[in-house]
Amino acid sequence: MTTIEADAVIIGSGPAGVSAAWPIVEAGFSVVMLDAAARPTPEPPAMDLTEFRRSGDGWRHAYGDDLCGLALGGLRSPKFATRIGQAVLADACHPMIRATDFMPTRSFSAGGLSKMWGAVAPAYDDWDLREYPIRKRDLDPSYRALAARIGLSGGDDDLTDFHGSGLPLQPPRWLTPIGARLLDRYCRSKPLPGFMLGTARNAVATETIADRRPCNSCGLCLYGCARGAIYDSTHDLAGLRRKPNFRYISPALVTRLPAIDDPALTVDIEGKGHYSVAKARVLVLAAGTLNSTGLVLARCLRAGRKQRLLTNPVAALAFFLPSRIGQPLADTTFSLAQLSYRLEISESSDYASGNLYTADGLPLAILAEKLPVSRPTALHLSALMASALVLATFFLPGRYSQNAVTLNIRGDGREELVVEGRISEDTNMLILEGIKKLARAMRHLGAIAVPGSRSIPVSGTDAHLAGTLPMKEHGEDLTCTPDCELRPWRGLFVVDGSCLPDLPSKHCTFTIMANADRVGRVLVKRLGNNRVGLSI
Amino acid sequence: MGQRNGVEHVLVTGANGYIGSRLVQMALNQGRAVTILGRSDREASPLARFVKWELGTDLPEFVLDTNQTALVHLAHDWTDRGEAGINYRGTIKLLTSARRLRVARFVFVSSVSARADALNAYGRIKWRIEQLLDDADTVAARVGLVYGGPARGMYGLLLKLVSSTPILPMVDPCRLVQPIHVDEVCHGLLALADGETTGRVGLAGPVPVTFGEFLKTLARETSAASLIVPSVPLRLALLGASVASHLPFVVKVDRERILGLAGAPQLNCKGDLETLGLSVERVEVGLRRDPIGTKALLREGSILGRYVSRRHVRGNLIRLYARTIRTLDEDRAGPLALPWLALYAPSLLRLYEPRRSDAVLAKRLHVAMALAEFSPEGVSTMDGSGVAARSARLLCAFWQVSLDAILFPFRLWLKR
Q: How far apart are CA A499 and CA A299, in angstroms?
C-alpha cells in the first residue's frame, strides 16, 4: 500500500479540478491530482476542412474507429458520436448508473467533459447568483484570472453585460459571414421586446496563449481542436504538471471518500490494481457532478434518499436564410457557438438563453437524416442547405428541471446511482412558447424556422449537471458551506457542478471554474503557513 | 489439436464430393490420419493417404496402424436407380471387408429423404441400405439439406439458380426442409465416428423451414437479392427439366434431384444433435460465416453506396460499409434482400426506399449516406456534381425533389 501525502489532494482533472489547483499550486503548497483516466484521448484531426472532407478518413473522427457513433440516435448532440466524444465518455464505470429518461453524461478521461464542451463561457451576474450564498464580487477576481488564462473571445455588443463585462477579451475572429450578417441585421432592426442578441462568449483563443495556437476557423471544432485554440482543461493540466509542487497520478480511480470522522482524510484509490491511501490536509472533490455525488452518497450510505439534480431543460431548432441556399460549402467555418441570445420568459423574471451555430462544419448526415425525401435527394439537399442553416439551442434555467438522483445498493452489494429525469408538462409548454418567441425574433432577422426541426431531447443531454450538494449559508448534511466545504465533513471541499445551488440558463462551466478558483484561494488561506512536502 | 478422445484414423469414401472433401479437410485439421478410398487421387489432399477402391469392390488388404479407425461412407453412384444395385451391393461389400480389416466404426451417410416409398430412387436406395446397419459398430446419419462451403452438390446447383433469376419456380415451395451447414454435417459425422451411437441419427436443422424460405434466404445471404418462389406442379417441373437438358447454356437439373425436392419427410433430430453435442445454426447464421456471406454484404454496400452518392463507389467505401453493418447490426448483420434490378440500376431504390426511418433498409441507407459523405465519391456528389452556378445547383435540387414527389405514389403502392 502506497501512501500519498500532500497539502491538498484534488480528485478529478476537469475544469473544476485544474481551476482549484492553480491558486494552491501557485501559493507553493503541494498538490496531488488523482485522475481516473486510464487511456489518452485520441488525437484531433490536424488538417483543414477541405482536406478533411476529401481525405476519406473523416469517418474516423466523426463516428469513431469502430464506427459506434453511427449507432447513436439523432436526438443527441452530434459531439457524442465523434471519436473524441466517445473516448471522453468511455470507461465511466464507478459507480454504476441506471438512468431513466435521462442521459447521464460523465467522463473518466483526462480533462473530463471539457474535452468535448461547447466552450461557451459567460459569467454569472448577481441576478444569476441570487440563490447563492456568494455574490458576483466574490467571483470577480477569479473570473478575471480565468479569462486571461483560458483565453476568452467575444464581441462588444448588447450582450456584453449579460456575458460579464470587465474581462480581458480577444476579438471574435471566428465569427462567420452568416453570424456576422445576423448580428448586423439585429443591430439595424428595431429590437423585439425581451430578445437580445450578441456575439457568443467563447473560451476560444484567437491570439496565441502559451502553447496554444489561435483559432484559424478550420471548422473541425466538433472533432477536437488540434491547434489547442478551444480551451480544455488538459491545457491547464499541462501547465500544472510543469510545477515541482504538483503531482498528477493516473489512472487513479477513487473508490471511497474518507469517513466523516476521519481527520486524516483517507481515500481509497484503485489504479492498475494497486491500492493506496492519500492523506491530505484538504481534499477537493472535482470529479464531476455524477461521480462526486455517487462517491459522497456511497460514503455516507444514504441509500434511497433522493437528491435533486439540476439540468437545463434544452431544446434545439433549425433556421435557414433563404438567400444563402445553394451556396457551396465553405472551406473555413467555426462549429462552436457564433451568437448567443437572451430571451425573456413570459410572466416570470427569469430568462432563457441559447446559442446559434452554423451547420456547414457538421456531418451532413445529421441534417439529411431529418429530411423527409429519398436518401440521395436528402444528401443533395443538405449539401445545398448546410451553408444556409443556423442551428439554435434553447436552455431554460435549471429550476425547471425535475430530476432526482438516488443511491441504490444492489442485490450483489454494489452501489448504483439511479438517475431519473423528468420534464414536466408545464416546462414543456414553456419550452414550446419560448421557441415560438425565438422563431419570431429570428424571422425578424430574416431566418426562417425549418418545419419539423424542433427537438426536445431527454434530460441530461445538455450535460449541465449540477446542484446535488448545493452550497448554502446554513444547511443540513450533504450541503456545502459558502466556502464549498461539504457538511458534515471537515476538510472535504466540493468544487464541481454539484455545489451550485442554482443553474441559470447561461452555461455554467465558466462559473464552476471561477468558483473552484475562489475555493482554491480560500484553501490557500486555510492551509496557513505550514507546508507539507510531496511524498508518494 | 488438444486432447481428443476419438478415432485416430478415418477412412472416407466419396472424398471428392461436396461433403467428402470438406470432411477430409476437417479430419486432417483435427490431427487425425485420413485415408481416402476412391478411384482417383486427382483431387485428394496431399496430407491424406490414398487407397484405390471403387464402389462394388472389396477394400484392398492394407494394414491399419491403429484399431481406432472409422470408415465414413459417402460414396454414391447416381446412375444406379435400382434398389439392389451397385450402391446397395457395394455397401455390403464395403462393410464386410471393413470389418475384416478391423475397422471399429462404420458411419453411413444417408438422407432425411430415406424412405421405403421415397419418390426418387436415391431415397429408396438409402433406406434400403440403412436396413443393413443394425449392429453395434454401424450407424446411419440422416443428413438434411446441406448448404454452405464451396458451391458444390445440391447447394451449388441452388446457388446457381437463385443467383441467375429473380423468379425461381419451384416444386412445392411450402414443403419443410431441414438445412444444415456442411461444416456442421462434418462435425456431426466425425462425432458419430468417435461415439458409440447406433441406428439412425438425424443430422439436420432442428427447426424446419419451408423450401421457398430457404431459397429466399440463400438469395439474400449470398447475393443481397430478393427472390420470388412461385409454386409449380411436379409434372411441369419434370417437363421443364427434360426440356432444359436439351438446350444449350441452361442450368441442367437432374430429374432425380427434382424428385428428391418433392418429398422429404421431417425428422425430429433435436435429441440426436444434443447427444452429439452439435449445435446447428439457422441458415443465415451459417452463411454469414462463409466468405460468400461477406460478399453479399459488400454487394449490398455497393448498391446502397451507388444509390446515395449517385455515382460509382470504390472498394474502400464498400468495405467500410460492410464493416459498419457487422459492427452495428449485431442482431441481423446479414445482407438485405434488395430488388434484383437494383444491382444493375441502384437508382430504382428510389421506388423501394421505406418511408419509416426505423425500417432496416432505412437504417442501412443512413449508414451508407453517413459514410459516403466522408468518401471522395460522396464529396464530389455534394459539391454539386461539378455544377458551379448556384441557379443550376438549385434547379438540380428542384428536379430531385420533384422526382421524389412524382415517385411517391409508386413508393406507397410498392410498399403496400
A: 17
